[in-house]
Every structure is written in structure tokens, then in C-alpha cells.
Design goal:
It contains seven helices and two strands. The protein is mainly alpha-helical and 166 residues long. The protein has a single domain, classed as Winged helix-like DNA-binding domain superfamily/Winged helix DNA-binding domain (Arc Repressor Mutant, subunit A, Orthogonal Bundle), CATH 1.10.10.10. The chain has a two-stranded antiparallel ribbon. The longest helix has 14 residues. The radius of gyration is 20 Å and the shape is globular.
Length: 166
């Protein structure tokens, strides 16, 4: 095998390509990547999805330096993904708790998709985490559905295109 063959990029199926007129930075994925492309941002948001709300709780779970956590939380607040609420334990000063905003909660399906992808393609030596229905405890899965009919869509038939912002 030649050197160029060994480093060939995997091809993208033609059915899953975008219209060719999309500027690289002019898409929601590019904008999201600019904000979330940092490992710490994703892990902080993960902790918030898992129900952690206090600074020290997140710092200890992530083993993240205080200054890094503080900076990233400030950026998430400024971006509108995280909100703060005051709380006070008896005998202590008032502190901030961190919660996902509506926009932050909107990342839920993306995080579940990444979780499933990581479980499938990067398995570890421990039981993976899966989403389950809180009442029935049955496993859940994500899928694409046709916005008009509600029928399941085939990913190989997806094409990205611009639509008017309404």
C-alpha cells in the first residue's frame, strides 16, 4: 500500500452532503463547534445534564482547575446555555448554583447522540450508560423522523439544505 493510500480520508456518501454554497462558518454546526469544541465545555455541560449544580461538585467530579471551571462557566452563561441561581446553606455565605437554560437543555438530544456514538465506537471496560424511560426503565434510542408525517427517516437519504428562517 502506498503512503497516500494509507492516509486516505473515508469518503462521505453523496446522499449526506450539503449544498455546495454553504460557507464553512455559516452553519449551526460550525457555530456550535466554536463554543462547544473545548473538552471542558462538553464535560461541564455533561455534569449539568447529570444533575450537578454546584461549583465544587463539578470541580471534584471533573478534576478541573478552579480557574478553568470558572472561565468556562462564565462563557456558558454569556452564551446563554447556563443560568445561575443563588443558594445558601445554613451558616454559609450565599453561593451560585448552575443550571441549564432552555438553550442548554436543547443540547440534550445532541448529547444523547454523542453518548450513543461513543458507546458504540469507543467501548471501554465498563458498562456503558444508556438513556432509559424514567417510569418504565426501558431503553430509549434516538432516530430521525419526517417532520410532516412522523415516519422514520433513512439517514442515507438525508441532504442538508437551506430553509427560510421562520
Amino acid at each position: 500500500m502506498s503512503n497516500s493510500e494509507s492516509h486516505a480520508s473515508p469518503s462521505v456518501p453523496e446522499t449526506v452532503i450539503a449544498d455546495s454554497d454553504f460557507p464553512v462558518a455559516d452553519c449551526g454546526l460550525a457555530r456550535a463547534a466554536r463554543l462547544l469544541g473545548d473538552r471542558w465545555m462538553l464535560l461541564i455541560l455533561r455534569q449539568l445534564f447529570y444533575g450537578a449544580h454546584r461549583f465544587e461538585e463539578m470541580r471534584e467530579a471533573l478534576k478541573i482547575p478552579k480557574s478553568v471551571l470558572s472561565t468556562r462557566l462564565s462563557a456558558l452563561i454569556e452564551a446563554g446555555l447556563v443560568e445561575t441561581r443563588d443558594y445558601r446553606e445554613a451558616g454559609s455565605r450565599t453561593r451560585k448554583a448552575y443550571y441549564l437554560s432552555t438553550a442548554g437543555e436543547g443540547l440534550g438530544l445532541s448529547f444523547l447522540a454523542l453518548l450513543g456514538w461513543g458507546n458504540k465506537y469507543f467501548p471501554e471496560d465498563f458498562d456503558p450508560i444508556h438513556p432509559v424511560d424514567a417510569t418504565t426503565r426501558r431503553r430509549l434510542k434516538l432516530m430521525l423522523v419526517d417532520a410532516e408525517t412522523g415516519e422514520r427517516a433513512d439517514l442515507t437519504q438525508v441532504k442538508l439544505t437551506r430553509t427560510p428562517a421562520n
